[in-house]
């Protein structure tokens, strides 16, 4: 007997559009007609999803209990405080812009939490693997051809053979590589047999390293190492053996490349890039106004503006407006530090709760990891990604617009609120 529409809506149609929205998020405004660049596929799917949710609420009501937790209290409170900050914001247009981004992204997180019982993890991780493969392929196409997608700003920076794929700049692409690599590792350590998915995951994990290096994103170098370290420390002993086995295979592969010069000088070029980037970490020359000095000035001026506003925050989106006043010293108006951006824009109270919320998520994920749950390995990969996020988030300039960051938190809340025991969904 066919299910009634209100059940099919919640169990079939809504999950489908959640998957489509999640998939489209990894390709951003590239999936749009250039003359209507603001109307890309992600926003279209998200619009349909919101409509279906409204219909679901009308037909099935709202389960209030699913919102009675610390995460929903904090996220709704954050959005509310952001609206309140309009009262003292200097630029209402910038405040509205950031308010829209903040509210929409928070709603997406709440959707993953609310409909977690109807979303299947294996579909989500297959989407992550597929998008990762596509990004890797496009990244190598950019390096080989020195051409880029129409949304990339690489030509404006006069960079050559630097990957950015579906992102605006190489820093954002590097952040994506680091934050979602732990989910790719799950395919390698979990599946015992050498399946197609395992081979693909192993290949793209290996190929992601040269791309990450060529982005010259120093913060993400550190985030990459941190993600691997946390992931290795948290996985089970049997998974550690699998992890080390394939790490050894990769090591031998690199030795062969170097020994027989099969890389055509590619590895030596990468070595030079790494050396240059690491040496630049200690370059604080004020005469040339290096990147480190500019970052220092951004922090100093950002905190000074926060002090002027009595630590209540300068208002949603208004950090850029105030930084314009000192642009002659900083060059950049973006704070280039997500945590500093939250602190300066929304104030000390929101920032404190934001940090508490992240640790709360990690605490809950550790509980999932230690339980008899099908999502224990995804919980480990999410913790590793959140650990890297603390460093990688200082690389990109506009984290509030980066859907990949918000979806990381959406995945975390999905895992926390959707306990799936051994009798639940299949792993593969």
Order of helices and strands: HHHHHHHHHHHHHHHH
Annotation field: number of helices: 16
Computed CA radius of gyration, to the nearest angstrom: 22 Å
**Total beta-strand segments:** 0
**Largest sheet entry:** none
Chain-averaged pLDDT: 85
Helix content: 55-70%
Shape: globular
How much strand?
A: under 5%
The computed structural class is mainly alpha
What's the end-to-end separation, in Å?
Answer: 28 Å
The low-pLDDT segments are 260-265, 422-428
Membrane topology: Multi-pass membrane protein
Transmembrane segments: 12-33, 39-59, 71-89, 95-115, 127-144, 173-189, 196-213, 219-236, 243-262, 298-317, 338-363, 375-392, 404-420
Subcellular location: Membrane
Protein name: O-antigen ligase-related domain-containing protein
Q: How would you explain this protein's 3D organization?
A:
With 428 residues, this protein is mainly α. Among the domains are: 1-62; 120-265 and 347-417, no CATH class. It is built from 16 helices and no strands.
